[in-house]
Design brief:
13 strands, Diaminopimelate Epimerase, Chain A, domain 1, inorganic pyrophosphatase (n-terminal core), 6-stranded mixed beta sheet
């Protein structure tokens, strides 16, 4: 007998799928996974799409789908916004129902993957018999899995969670209110509450309107905020313009944003790995003595560089170098994002280049990178002298340069393809 949606929660479903996957050693299952940064969009999209696939009654194979977290369970504390959104979805520490990397059997037999919030399978899963069966993403299309992935949807959106929500069939099946809340949370953090003139597109507003009506937010909202009673009435069908100013949307967005920026307790290493992506670049023969792949890492840090270096500049430099050594990086980009005194969004970039790993002569790797970045019309970078990078110099093999990014709307989503284009052409 089918379980009632009111009693069979999202947590129950995740626990059941995880147990079945582990019992089968992954044989015949599809791992639904997001990108390595492990942000809220990746987390919610993987859980959401795995749920949708597992409830596709017409396809028994798709029913055996389970979300794989890309973050170790002990590292969930690095993202307070993720923890809060999971709590709203009634998933709490120590998160036993979630399948995390450390839960995977060493010899698991899963070879099928569905990718959300990225469109290139991570190298540690890319075995000879690996198959990517589906892709839902809003990053630059890398042109892979054209023959194997169905659906293969790569298109602009403020949040991948919006593309996942749109996959719900025209006659929607019941969705757990906890899942609707989780997906809505991802859309809010990525679009700054559907901010007008921001990243939100039509697909995001449509998804948010539908999710709000099916979410658990009205039941979770406090009786009052600091100004009076919270408006718990939901917007009428099609009234998308009212979403941005809706009390529930504002409250959720403000709470998530505040938690996302609360990182003062984190070490330099934790700040670097908290929101981090890694890339393998095949550098041009004109740069390297022995052309071949080099590794680059991009870490998004929600602090200005002045705060990043505030306490112990020399140790911050040392920890940054140590992270590069740990990851085998030739290039590390620290991409800061924060709000100025008037609440205006600001961004900076600090680039650290380790020439010896790339086997380049006369700092050719750094020179090509810096020239390319400074010439890029989209980022609009302005080079600045930054005290800590001057006063506490790196080892002689390292070259450092700091920029103000005048185009504050450009994120890692735009910077990563630019980096690839500069060094591989």
């Amino acid at each position: 007998m089918a379980k009632s949606i009111s009693t069979y929660t999202l947590s129950h479903h995740l626990a059941d799928q995880k147990a079945r996957f582990l019992a089968d050693q992954g044989r015949g299952w599809t791992l639904v996974m997001g990108n390595e940064a492990g942000d809220l969009d990746t987390l919610a999209s993987s859980i959401g799409y795995a749920w949708l696939r597992s409830h596709e009654s017409s396809n028994e194979d798709q029913q055996k789908s389970v979300a794989l977290m890309t973050t170790s369970r002990v590292d969930f504390v690095l993202r307070a916004e993720n923890v809060h959104a999971l709590q709203l979805a009634r998933i709490t520490d120590p998160y036993p129902e979630l399948l995390c990397p450390e839960d995977l059997p060493v010899s698991h037999q899963c070879t099928e993957y569905a990718l959300v919030d990225h469109n290139n399978l991570q190298s540690n899963f890319a075995s000879a018999n690996a198959q990517v069966k589906a892709v839902l993403d809003h990053h630059e299309d890398e042109g892979k899995y054209l023959g194997s992935a169905s659906p293969r949807i790569i298109e602009p959106a403020g949040s991948c969670a919006s593309l996942v929500t749109r996959q719900n069939p025209p006659t929607p099946r019941p969705i757990p209110p906890e899942l609707a809340t989780l997906l809505l949370s991802a859309i809010m953090i990525d679009t700054q509450g559907l901010k007008k003139g921001g990243k939100a597109l039509g697909v995001d507003r449509d998804a948010a309107a539908w999710l709000l009506r099916h979410s658990s937010l009205p039941d979770l909202a406090p009786a009052a905020d600091g100004t009076g009673n919270i408006n718990l009435s939901l917007p009428a069908e099609g009234a998308l313009d009212t979403l941005t100013d809706h009390s529930l949307i504002r409250s959720l967005t403000d709470t998530l944003s505040t938690k996302k920026m609360a990182v003062s307790h984190l070490s330099t290493r934790d700040l670097l790995r908290r929101d981090y992506k890694e890339y393998t670049l095949n550098v041009s023969p004109s740069i390297s003595v022995q052309p071949g792949p080099v590794k680059a890492g991009l870490a998004t840090v929600p602090l200005p560089l002045s705060v990043y270096f505030a306490s112990h500049p020399s140790s911050t430099m040392a920890e940054s170098q140590a992270w590069m050594k740990e990851r085998g990086l030739s290039i590390l980009g620290v991409l800061t994002t924060y709000r100025g005194k008037k609440g205006v969004g600001k961004r900076e970039e600090m680039w650290i280049v380790h020439e010896s790993l790339a086997d380049t002569a006369d700092r050719q790797l750094a020179l090509r990178l810096f020239r390319g970045l400074e010439a890029d019309k989209q980022l609009r970078l302005k080079r600045v002298d930054f005290g800590p990078s001057n006063d506490f110099s790196f080892h002689a093999d390292f070259t450092v340069r700091v920029y103000k990014q005048k185009n504050a709307s450009a994120t890692r989503k735009q910077i990563a393809p630019t980096l690839k284009q500069i060094l591989e052409k």
